[in-house]
Amino acid sequence: MKNIRLFLCYVLMFVVCSCNSQNKKNAEYDWDAKMKDMGLIDINFWEPSIQYYLVYATKDNFTGKPLYNSKLTKAWLHPKAAKMLLHAQDILKKERPDLSILIYDAARPMEVQFEMGQWAKKTNNEYYVADPEKGGGLHNYGMAVDVTLIDENNEWLPMGTPYDFFGPEAHIEKEDDLLKRRRITPSEYKNRKLLRKIMIQAGFTTVNSEWWHFNACSRSEAREKYLLIEK
């Protein structure tokens, strides 16, 4: 009996160690290297004036925990989307030299999209998260970007809601009514209009529910022409 117990202890230890080793391996997957190998662009390397703060590398996001590991450290985009964002920055600088684009999120691995999808189902927020079971969204191809504007002191311009705010105040089709009902201020309204103006002029399209989100192509085009970001 003693030998059996000892054997079971060894088996349990082996299983635990194997699981920990696998979890560590997954947690340390080098997504920066993967993105580079896929031909995606580190936008800040191309244009240092475009800054980034990867929200999902922190716990300051809608799940309350970091979703990116320590080896996803840059804002990556497909070259087509990267060129469009550079164009948006040029448009902005001509109109407002004191302002710059800041990236909240860019290319996103599918494994992170699945984690977001699980959270969305548990909290009844599926509307705001692209369904990973249906191929995810354009972030998962490096063809979408979440952005805001910052001033010359690196202060974020007020936009009426924080990033990843799930509610009508973040919707762009409701802005006139939001302004009328004083749910957003005139300066916040103006800032959103400016952000949307430069991004649309650069070729991006919008989504109604998120003032910060811009697409570089349609979902059908992405599935036909571009690579999904997965291992």
Task: List its traits.
single chain; five-stranded mixed sheet; 7 strands; disordered N terminus; alpha+beta; 231 residues
Short description:
It contains eight helices and seven strands; from the N terminus they run ααβαββαβαβααββα.
Task: Tell me about this structure.
Helix content is 42%, strand content 12%. With 231 residues, it is an alpha+beta fold. Helix 4 crosses helix 7.
Number of strands: 7
Q: Percent of residues in helical segments?
A: 40-55%
Structural class call reads alpha+beta
Low-confidence stretches: 2-26
Strand content: 5-15%
Largest sheet: 5 strands, mixed
Mean pLDDT level: 90
Set out the fold topology.
Layout: H1 2-27, H2 31-37, E1 41-42, H3 43-46, E2 51-52, E3 76-77, H4 79-95, E4 100-105, H5 110-123, E5 144-150, H6 175-180, H7 186-201, E6 205-207, E7 210-215, H8 219-225
Parallel strand pairs: 2-4
Antiparallel strand pairs: 1-3, 4-5, 5-7, 6-7
